[in-house]
Amino acid sequence: MTCLTRRVILGLAAVAGLAATPAVQAQTFPDRPITLVVPFAAGGPTDIIARIMAEHMSRTLGQSIVVENVAGAGGTTGSTRVARATPDGYTLVMGNLGTHSASLGLYPRLGYDPRTDFEPVINAAGTPMLIAAHKDFPANTL
User: Contact 112/79 with Cβ under 8 angstroms?
Assistant: First the structure.
């Protein structure tokens, strides 16, 4: 069953449940502060991008966005914390290539599966990457 199919089925079940419920009061989101976990130490590029985004998100949503640095294990400590948090939209992670791709191959007992435990919200930034070798290395392409 694909992820989309699961969501459609869950969505239909939710609609059916609402139809059977008497009066349901609308809830507003967010009604409390949101935590944005940066799985790296303060002052690095991921932290800087997160803080710029948090400031804009706070103005847009009218709610405080708390940036929390949870460094360790190449970003997997903070990412694991978010993966285990209640999936209510109040705890987000500023993931990157390391936390959501490379970690699968680097950590045999990773505390989360980036393919299924997270839902991407936005591509916040792109960073250039390059592969370099000694000038006398014979290959000049991948």
Answer: yes
